[in-house]
Design goal:
Number of helices: 6
Strand content: under 5%
Mean pLDDT: 75
Largest sheet: none
Amino acid sequence: MWKSWSGRDEGKDAYQFGDVTRGVIRGIGGFFAQTEQKEQKEHTQQTQRGGLVTQADRTEQKEQTQQATNQEVQTKNALVPANMDDIWTSFFNRAYEVGFQAVQSGLLTNDEILDQEPFLYLGLPGATVLDAIIRSLPHEQGIR
């Protein structure tokens, strides 16, 4: 399971150091690859229309943004009893968000993510734990 999830070509299927971060980095890298493909497709469509962005394009973009925002709010507001699978899933999801925010803010580059630079294997999980601690400081109920 770990070998395929992390994208390793060598070694046993059991967990090996770096598999968690490698899998998260692959997910972030896949997101950026999909984003680049989408941007290229949109650019091609705009070029075919003479570079014009239509009202339908704007409406579609606005609806997609609203749906993503609604989904994010629902996810953040949902309180459910947690088990270890839920905790790990939450950690991985937050690691994606922390990595994505780091790229958006210029702390990481797309190339560093796609090249799976070695510093990411400890840095990304560390940044995710730090983010959880910082976000939990004003809360009396513990880490969220």
